[in-house]
Amino acid sequence: MDCRSETHRPGVSNVAVWAEAAHSVCRGRRCLIRCSCRGPRAADFLAVFCKKESSAHGKSYLATREGDCVFMMLVKLRAQATFRGPRLHPFSGSIVHVKVQNISSMVNQLESLDKNNLMQVHRDMESLKERLHDCENTSKNTEETFSVPYGSCDHNGLAHVGKPFLVQLNWKGSNHKYGGWGRDTAVPPARKNLYWVAPLNIDGRILEAFRHYSSYNDFLMYRNPTDKQLSLYLKSTGKWNHTNGGQGGGMIIHGNYFYYNCYNSRDMCRINLKTGAVERKTLPSAAYNNRYPYAGVTFQDMDFASDEHGLWVSYATEKSSGNIVISKLDVKSFSVVKSWTTTVYRSSVSNAFMMCGVMYAIRPVSRSKQEIFYMFDTKKDQGKKISIMMETLMEPVQSLNYNANDHKFYMFSDGFEITYDLTFNV
């Protein structure tokens, strides 16, 4: 396998490692690398990154990824590992096909490393090719049988949350740990390739500006952004005017608008992405200014969400005694159509999202796991307990958006942008 990599720093302090024929996910000095190498010496030349804790040196972990037969290793940099090469797009190519295409290259490298093990390596490679072939056929059949069309509710609810994929650090840097990010959530989207990022100030409250990109590549490279300034700096007074500013990480882009909680109020705000015009509407009885925020964060009293059925907002009121209230919004009039009150205390959950008219709430169960523990069906006007586990790379969960256009979660956590693939009950 032609494993070459380079180390670079996207943003301020995030270090990412990219490897050809190895799909990697990195955070700080820790890196998960999906690779296809096997044999006695595979770990020696595939060790391309290191972990902070010295006590962890020399340990490797193997796991499989459902539907793709991909091996995952947590590996450490060794002194003799001096690979060089171009940076690769994290989503480019199929890891399954890359494995097969690079078998001959891997054999050549292993031959130079250890000729005594060459025959064993050949046998391993042949076995691997057969397994990959079977896996590809199984994967194709599974996709044809169980795939759910994007934007469709032709399923029986969420079944499984995949592994977290760390994309990168937000454009403002590691000090900005709170905020949100994602894609246009309208079905169909107004702009299919639009990506947005909205880091809050270091105080974890104020939203002064956000930016969006016209392509995924531009988003990854932090290039050609369109910046939208919400708060204005007044030179005459030396102070900020937050009249059109926002607060909390409950923002979202739906269609041609960016929705958020107006600063220091129970008002909903939205800014037109084309004209820059800002509208605001009061959300009746909504608690605000950190009255009932999500657990582990501050000032996220209002959380906008979108699904196959349209635009929503969740919050709490004094009348609901802090329990989550869900409201369906009319996009044209920017007003509440109908509301439902749940039995879940808002400050006991770490976040919530909408999917096919159903609200799902999550809560932490450990430092590395969250549980989707409750769902409320607005069609049936009733809720029930469930249990779907999801791994987390870091804390806290500042923002979590579901996108019906690609069946993914978009999470903002500790300043990093993370995605999850989802599967459904059919």
UniProtKB/TrEMBL annotation:
Coiled-coil region: 118-145
Subcellular location: Secreted
InterPro entries assigned to the protein according to its UniProt record, in alphabetical order: Olfac-like_dom, Olfactomedin-like_domain
Ranges where the Olfactomedin-like domain occurs: 152-426
A single GO BP: signal transduction
Record keywords, A-Z: Coiled coil, Secreted
Transmembrane region(s): none
Origin: domain of life: Eukaryota
One cellular-component annotation, GO: extracellular space
Protein name: Olfactomedin-like domain-containing protein
Organism per entry: Pleurodeles waltl (Iberian ribbed newt)
